């Protein structure tokens, strides 16, 4: 099955921190539950309970029996959430790195996602010079204009 994140995306294994230290858990899940959790984040595996149970080496009936236990469901949901948030953190870090290189599309996306950036007007630049051809003063003025267009004032402050 193709990776939904692109043909060249790295296959990521959950870190031990994400799978958590089994010895400190209030609820001690069965050993197969850790394998099931790892199967949930395996992008090459078909995203069905049957495929995940087969990968974890557990009968589906056993999995469904455990799903009737609130402590198991709570444990599973907490660990899935931890893994998903970790993935989101990696994506956010990658986006920030692109922003720091000066990628304007990445900067715009960052503001749309994290700074409640909502442009209130559209400004068309009359000359056709590339941004790389502009002076630092001109770029700062453009940034000030964009910051002033942000009604919430949540973007970066440019002085």
Structural features, described:
The chain has 159 residues and is mostly helical. The chain has 2 domains: 16-101, no CATH class; 115-159, no CATH class. The chain has 7 helices and no strands. The longest helix is centred in the middle third of the chain and has 31 residues, at 70-100. The termini are far apart.
For the report, how would you describe the main beta sheet? none
Low-confidence stretches: none
Task: Give the C-alpha Rg.
Answer: 23 Å
Distance between the termini: 51 Å
Estimated share of beta-strand residues: under 5%
Mean pLDDT: 75
Helix/strand order, N-terminal first: HHHHHHH
Q: What is the total domain count?
A: 2
Work out the helicity level: 40-55%
The rough form would be described as: elongated
Number of helices: 7
Count of DSSP strands = 0
Q: Kindly name the structural category.
A: mainly alpha
Supply the key terms:
single chain, 159 residues, 2 domains
Protein topology:
Layout: H1 16-19, H2 31-40, H3 49-56, H4 60-67, H5 70-100, H6 104-114, H7 136-148
Helix pairs in contact: 2-3, 5-6
